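Renewal narrative, Specific Aim 1. Our central claim is that a sequence can be written position by position from structural information alone. The example that follows is taken directly from our test logs and has not been curated for this report. It begins with the structure tokens describing the chain, in the order in which they were read.
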């Protein structure tokens, strides 16, 4: 049997650390990687960051949370309560009923910002894990879209101390690429993107700029409609990647019907209806044909959303 990184990282993404370690132990050539996990999670040799002792001690409380919830497999509720209690002790907070959200907002964030960093707390995919970085740069892009040009701002973040639980659990191999603020600005972890790639230009920039354009025109647009039009834009502009195959995969395998998966189902259905093809035949379509059909469907969607949201 040969070690397969996709299998290993599949366990990590699903937060199944014990299964990931059991898989690693089957392969002699993964001994060094396994040693790092043993040191971190079994021996509790926590990471020491290049910051002062006070901040390192604070960050250790989150590292203990990671060990408790992922390695010891305590319930998330139990592990987060233990973290809350440790942080209350660390900051000597007199109100012992203070919620974890209040502790992060009023104490953790303040301590980190006083030392020149930015902080984002809360949960990602159900688990706690802070994002802590030093440098922010805002760039303004003029983004060409099917219905015009949209000005869109991106905040590039770099010099990270922590990048959430997935980065920690994967030993820095996997992490979030970014997130969108309440004001609509996308925060982009700069090192995760090649700014000349289609992944950035099309799947991030054009996708998010289409959201911004649609929400400016149709303030009540539903998530499914937003994702449907933004995914069509991706198909229109993608020359190097066959994203229709990705959407077919999403439509086949998703058991969570959020805006993204509903949009993928809808796009696949539209392609089948237009071309009178089954799913397998769609997978063989040339990219130029995909672009042409996607543009036609997008034009039809414009008339549809006007009827729906401009009554």
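The sequence written for that structure reads:
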């Amino acid at each position: 049997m040969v070690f397969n990184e996709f299998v290993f990282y599949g366990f990590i993404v699903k937060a199944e650390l014990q299964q990931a370690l059991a898989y690693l132990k089957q392969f002699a050539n993964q001994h060094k990687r396994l040693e790092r996990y043993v040191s971190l999670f079994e021996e509790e040799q926590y990471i020491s960051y290049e910051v002062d002792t006070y901040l390192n001690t604070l960050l250790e409380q989150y590292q203990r949370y990671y060990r408790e919830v992922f390695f010891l497999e305590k319930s998330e509720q139990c592990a987060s309560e233990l973290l809350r209690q440790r942080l209350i002790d660390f900051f000597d907070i007199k109100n012992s009923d203070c919620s974890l959200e209040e502790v992060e907002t009023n104490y953790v964030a303040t301590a980190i910002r006083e030392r020149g960093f930015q902080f984002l707390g809360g949960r990602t995919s159900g688990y706690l894990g802070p994002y802590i970085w030093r440098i922010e740069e805002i760039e303004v892009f003029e983004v060409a879209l099917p219905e015009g040009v949209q000005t869109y701002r991106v905040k590039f973040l770099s010099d990270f101390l922590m990048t959430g639980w997935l980065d920690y659990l994967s030993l820095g191999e996997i992490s979030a690429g970014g997130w969108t603020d309440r004001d609509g600005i996308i925060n982009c972890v700069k090192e995760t993107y090649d700014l000349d790639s289609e992944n950035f230009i099309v799947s991030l920039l054009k996708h998010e700029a289409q959201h911004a354009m649609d929400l400016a025109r149709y303030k009540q647009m539903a998530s499914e409609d937003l994702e449907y039009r933004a995914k069509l834009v991706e198909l229109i502009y993608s020359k190097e990647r066959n994203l229709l195959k990705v959407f077919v995969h999403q439509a086949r395998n998703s058991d969570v019907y959020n805006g993204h998966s509903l949009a993928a189902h809808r796009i696949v259905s539209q392609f089948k209806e237009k071309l009178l093809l089954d799913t397998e035949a769609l997978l063989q379509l040339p990219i130029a044909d995909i672009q042409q059909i996607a543009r036609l469907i997008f034009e039809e969607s414009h008339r549809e959303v006007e009827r729906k949201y401009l009554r």
